[in-house]
Amino acid sequence: MSKFSTIRIKELLEKSDAAKLPDLKGAALEKLGCYLFGKMKGLNLYGKNKFNASGSRELDIIYKNDRRTSELHFLDGFIPIECKNTAKKTTSEQVNWFANKVSDTTCRYGLLLTLSGLTGKDETEAAKSEIMRAVSKFGIGILVITRIEILQLSSTRDLANLLEQKYLALCLEEKVELEFY
Question: One MF term in GO for this entry (predicted)?
């Protein structure tokens, strides 16, 4: 377990927020993503801004996950991360686009860092419906991390616990509801 510097997290968030162009906002948020996940045991940066063979889809960050030693042992051997820092909440279309990008890989789960949150009143509408659609249609799970959650992290153990809770909710609770209703 490694500790996070709350000063460093806030500094990276401020840089992302202060950037004038969308690409610069995204690049600054990618630095935050690399800071958070780069401190985790068992994760190694595989690539940033990686395109598929046709050049039509890009993954912001990809970590190689050594499940034998990783704090994220419950996730796949590769973890794609999408970074969204927009003034408006991440939409269902953006969630769908990311789910499609993940479905083009051998990964079953992707992480979505969205500083403004998801569309819908309380994450039970719109964008969340796309997350559930990705599970049922593609077999892809999208785990969402928001600004509020990032600001509450003090260690890699906190991040691993947060993601494990989201993973369990998506894999177990949501599937049980889908199967029996």
Answer: endonuclease activity
